[in-house]
Write a structure and sequence with these properties.
The protein has helices at residues 30-42, 44-55, 64-79, 86-95, 105-112, 121-148, 155-173, 181-196, 209-215, 234-246, 263-275, 292-302, 317-331, 354-372, 406-410, 429-434, 467-470; strands at residues 223-228, 254-258, 307-310, 335-339, 376-381, 413-418, 436-445, 451-458, 463-466. It is α/β, with parallel strands linked by helices. The N and C termini lie far apart (74 Å).
């Protein structure tokens, strides 16, 4: 439907709107529209494709100015004329004689500075899309009211037409994700044949052979939960897995969102683990100069890794989505790790309970894994129930996941890192170098078996190793 625009540059009411209050403006949110267009100008590499995919057409914008600019950005982006920025968009508007129509280059400059971050871009797009649907519904319903007064048409014919228009309203903005079996069966069969022949990697290998045999690696689109009580070593094993993945021969890019540690702390941990040197030795005077060459070699090795660290504390699910989407677009990351879930914040205000907020976060992480088609390794905290037995060797269960049963529901794989807390207290240097027993318990596996993976933990270098791989040899070294 194309309607005349008034002097303010917004669509006038539809011809049928005389039935309604014509002085009442249609639903819109100018601020959200400005934020969306601003994001496309500020960070085109990560935002333009996402906005175009979500909003599709300029008709979803309420103001004429935003519609014209959106169309110009789309054309510049499609023609790849050096990228989207104020100059290229202004030039495109000038070529189509619409630059003065939108208020000149000053309007573009003002839009560019309208926001300070693009973290909430997805939410802004949702607002714009939903209000566009409401405006389209007003038009459809207004015209339908007029047609209802037309006695020359049958009721069944009219209802069929109205239903058709309502469905069109929904799918002008919302994308249907329905896939027919016929369209997917051939590609699925081809994938299974390649997997059977070992021609494709079903999941990213974690570096723990017993775990990989059980869960077939970290598979794209899946949420892999690794939970433990504090000070058991869940951050350490997560970093061990990230290191194992990032240092493969093809150096796949991986991302680590740490809500607990700084980038420097994480880097020190990785450097000391990989070089087999205790971090405490740098501070207590026990560092051996013979270890220095190992550190130098490790520095050169780690420089090859494409590990992206985000140490933002109090990260919200919206910020996580925005940052992860940008990393996927710019670097094609293959794995995301989050430390840890209960430190994140939900997007909604006035949460009725912390359990509901954690449920929102958990669902958001699962959606992120599916949307980006990458595995997400998320660490989680266990509640204190596991310790109420009075035994340091009490094994965790699914019911011990802290604050929300939705984590269990959303996760494809749930594992518990376990070791005897009492046994690990006041270890001597010799005992620390010999290692302590640990277990990785696969409690839930949506597409495979459950069971226990035996590990050895070496506290001095904060590393877990697959016990069976080394046949219980004391402290295996990567440096001979």
């Amino acid at each position: 439907m194309a309607y005349q625009k008034n002097s303010a540059g917004v669509p006038a009411a539809s011809p049928a709107s005389g039935i309604l209050d014509t002085n009442r403006p249609q639903p819109h949110n100018i601020e959200a529209e400005r934020a969306v267009v601003s994001a496309m100008l500020r960070e085109p590499a990560s935002c333009v494709d996402m906005v175009i995919e979500r909003l599709k057409e300029s008709s979803v914008f309420y103001t004429h100015t935003h519609r014209v600019i959106f169309d110009s950005i789309k054309r510049v982006h499609a023609e790849n004329q050096g990228g989207v920025d104020i100059l290229t968009v202004a030039n495109e508007l000038r070529k189509t004689n619409k630059l003065d129509d939108i208020g000149g280059e000053l309007t573009l400059v003002e839009l560019h500075g309208a926001i300070s971050t693009t973290a909430n871009l997805e939410s802004w797009c949702d607002i714009v899309a939903e209000l566009a649907m409401l405006r389209n519904m007003i038009d459809v319903c207004s015209e339908s009211l007029l047609h209802c007064y037309d006695a020359g048409r049958s009721a069944s014919e009219l209802i069929d037409e109205i239903e058709s228009k309502i469905f069109k309203v929904r799918f002008t903005v919302e994308k249907s994700d329905i896939v027919t079996l016929n369209s997917s069966i051939d590609s699925t069969f081809e994938y299974l044949q390649k997997a059977m022949k070992g021609e494709v990697e079903v999941g990213i290998k974690t570096g723990y052979p017993d775990l990989d045999r059980m869960v077939y690696g970290l598979k794209p689109g899946e949420m892999f939960v690794l939970a433990a009580r504090p000070s058991i070593g869940k951050t350490s094993i997560a970093l061990n897995i990230l290191r194992n993945v990032a240092l493969r021969a093809d150096y796949p890019p991986v991302a680590f969102f740490s809500l607990e540690m700084t980038a420097d702390q994480i880097t020190r941990r990785l450097l000391c683990t990989e070089s087999d040197v205790s971090e405490s030795s740098f501070y207590n005077g026990k560092f051996r100069q013979t270890d220095f060459p190992k550190l130098v070699r490790t520095v050169q090795t780690l420089k090859k890794a494409r590990l992206f660290i985000d140490p933002t504390s109090g990260l919200s699910i919206a910020e996580l989505r925005a940052k992860a989407r940008r990393l996927k677009a710019e670097h094609d990351i293959k794995l995301i790790a989050i430390d840890y879930l209960q430190l994140m914040k939900g997007d909604k205000n006035n949460q009725e309970s912390r359990q509901q907020e954690v449920a929102e976060i958990s669902g958001g992480i699962k959606s992120l894994a599916k949307d980006l088609n990458v595995p997400v390794l998320v660490l989680a905290q266990l509640n204190r129930e596991v310790e109420k037995t009075g035994s340091g060797d009490a094994r965790p269960k699914l019911s011990h996941l802290r604050e929300s049963g939705s984590i269990e529901q959303d996760a494809d794989v749930v594992t518990f890192l376990h070791r005897n807390r009492d046994q690990s207290k006041n270890l001597t240097d010799e005992a620390s170098h010999m290692g302590v027993d640990a277990e990785l318990i696969v409690e839930k596996n949506r597409n495979g078996q459950t069971g226990m993976v035996p590990l050895k933990f070496y506290p001095h270098r904060m590393e877990f190793v697959n016990l069976s791989k080394y046949d219980e040899e004391p402290e295996p070294s990567r440096f001979g």
